[in-house]
């Protein structure tokens, strides 16, 4: 390596013809016949010669090339390969440039299998997509801090408290996902942001529910024979959630038992097993009336494809001038049980598909109280026809 440095000057570099020109210290300017030029540094490290490109000329000036060359020679003096060091630095920079939007989508994809319906409803991702990513999506995840998060969620922290809380929790999952990928992130950023945001003023608002004495008149008014009305009737009769009702299939029904698959139950797929629902005679009548509408095995298909949406039933009640919503009928049923029926707590809760007791207790208690729930649902059906002469059932005794 020549010890004479700074042989070239800008004027000579610009005027040079195609060829190789030394600036000293291993720094060369290669000028090509096509008019292009490239800086190349030759160094010897670990017993072999290495050629390191320093960029095109004149985009990389003579002054900048000399600075970069000196930095590389300093690494050689430390026994380091400047080419490998540069590659390592580029990998770290690329790794730390992952944007939050990309990390969030990757985190969502990796968790789809754990989510109900593979997350197709969008409820897991939507708090991020609507309230976080528009502001922070293009921020490298390594640069994300508590102030960024605080400023993003502050506008909804009190007015949309539940959504803001979900967004913060999802963001925490994204940061843990980024850390698992090897990215340098602040895992405490969401906790710090929560401290900056303070306690929420919001109080949880329960879904409006029709008082249980008023449910019979509404149920009996569902006499139009439409898919929406039949779905609402079955929802009320079974006290089930909207999702399994809307996705009910003929192959899930065996006699007077409807078996809801595990993935259709609320929560994670691995959080519960399939659930048996006893069908009252009235529920079987509703299913029979819905058969002509069935398509592709679904009892309540939509007009175009798939099944009716949750909004379909909600809008139906809204057009009736009601503030109550379909999910509220579960509360109506539970209040009716509490105020009029002498049944064990476990039976009443199981009728709603709720899990009761601790893990050890559940491990020893294998029953789902099917016979007792069958009698309970028949009594519920009788209540729904209070004052009506449409049906007549035998008396059932709760065990």
UniProtKB/TrEMBL annotation:
Q: Does the keyword DNA-binding apply?
A: yes
Keyword Ligase annotated: no
The UniProt record lists the Tyr recombinase domain at 205-377
Question: Which UniProt keywords are listed?
Answer: DNA integration, DNA recombination, DNA-binding
Q: Which GO terms describe its molecular function?
A: DNA binding
Region span, Disordered: 1-24
Q: Which Gene3D superfamilies match?
A: 1.10.150.130, Integrase, DNA-binding domain, Intergrase catalytic core
Q: Which family does it belong to?
A: Belongs to the 'phage' integrase family.
- Protein name from the UniProt record: Integrase arm-type DNA-binding domain-containing protein
**The organism's taxonomic lineage, starting at the top:** Bacteria, Pseudomonadati, Pseudomonadota, Alphaproteobacteria, Rhodobacterales
